[in-house]
Fold these 2 entries.
Entry 1:
Amino acid sequence: MSTIRWIEAQARSARWHSESGLPLPRRVVVADDRMRAAVAYRLACEGTALLWRGDYYNARQLLRAMDRRIGRAAPGAAGTPAESFRLYRRFRAHRARVLGKLLVLLEEDHTLALRRAPDVSRACVEAYGPSDGPVAVALTELLGVISAREWRENGVHVPALNARIHPHYGVFAPTRSEYVDLVARAPLPPGVCAAFDLGTGTGVLAAVLARRGVRQVVATDVSARARACAWDNVRRLGFGGTVRVAGPDLYPEGRAHLVVCNPPWIPARPASDLDLGVYDAGGGMLHGFLDGLAGRLEPGGEGWLVLSDLAERLGLRTRAELLTAIEAAGLRIVDRLDTRPRHARVRDRHDPLHAARAAEVTSLWRLAVP
């Protein structure tokens, strides 16, 4: 961690932490309820961070006011889907940088010493671990930590399990149930008794396989947070004796009758570890799954690739490239099951990526060794 410094009656400092990879603020000024949104926005755009010392809810109002000013420059659809995507990501990065300049200070016990501030200590312990002294974070990040605590407490209902999955901070939540439904209804290979779930995240697909009667499931993930989350969920659901969580390697040791992989759908560079559930630089996880599959399947086994075609519709990958990668890995396509998304963004015509999202198809590719 790095250190930020500011003047507040005297010179002060605190450690700087950013889960989203925001750079260390080089200039920090103290701000409170007297700070006008126009001034805050100008300072943030110039690179000055604002350490908030006023009322907690006034800070949230200021953040919303700054966001409205940023929204006036939001891009529309560009000439091509790929250009629209690049502009969209550039705008999102700019928005994160500007809003990330409004900071709060977490005290040694993870408390927030602001008027009307909620108790955030438990949420911060779950996200960051035990406190190691005062730390400055962006208010946007803290709001994400608080929201993650609520997600973790309440869970996400998964129809295929008729149960709730409880995502941890920094682990992609299974809010899009259509891809889970594909794994729940695809025909299992004959005689399947062992399966791998690669990139398990919350453990939702491993739990679905266990619910379907697979007796041994190994769930892997590169992220320690995801592995802890997956184990928490499979244990809650009563599958602790069926599912084993491993990592950080993509493939565990041995072979399986079924290997399931739902890699991040967008082959673009993640801005931080929080993006790893969505972005897969160069399609690295996709190709790792395909290239290793033939050597990890039991005779007669299958690999299930769960993948959206959103990258194809955004011009980031072609269908021909995907088919070539499957063939180059020594695999054949047994079947493909398709589904359409049901999330709200499909209907949001103000989204610059609306055309691609509205046409998106998510597929489960059943792959086998010839």
Entry 2:
Amino acid sequence: MTASPRFTRRTITDQVTEDLRARILSGDFPAGFQLRQDAIAGEYNVSRIPVREALQRLDAEGLVTFQPHKGAIVSQLSIDEIEELFEVRKLLECELLRHAVPRLTPADLKSVEDILLVYDEAFRSGDVAKWGELNREFHDRLYRASNRPKTLEIIRMIGNNTVRFTQAQLALSGATDRAEREHHQIFEACKAGNTEEAVELLAEHIQSSADSLMECLRKARE
């Protein structure tokens, strides 16, 4: 286990939740890993109460499940379940982008471009640990202008359940160049105010990511 930060802000439960979530999404805690409350409480130097509350929150997000005789474990998804999540992603994210593009301000576009530059650098340096979070942040910043907070909340939850797989897929498939190129194409269409082109590019981007991931997973599970 990696060293944990010293907690100084927000509630202890918030901080335990955030740190555990980050470690699950990064793959530090892989699918099927048993999250022992006593061990986690000892590592963070807190009581079991905030740990239990944090695990319950992560259960609600779909990242953790509680099993008889095992307690909390990091959720495992079947290939069919992952594929279904990508289908939902494509439907909802395309709708969010359709609403967002006409509302994007120069400040919004600058924010998206800034995160895209950081993402590019992470790709070039091979910083795998950052890919998933930067990918989510790129898409999130595009969608914020949609003024659809409930849909965005659903997308964020789905993202939490797929980012650990897409991050591994990019590393295994070597598809980073394609992903980087597709992100720039989507951004340029948004910048030009071309809603239909941006939505079409996004749909193709999500589908190609899903297809590549499914192929990797099926090979790994044969």
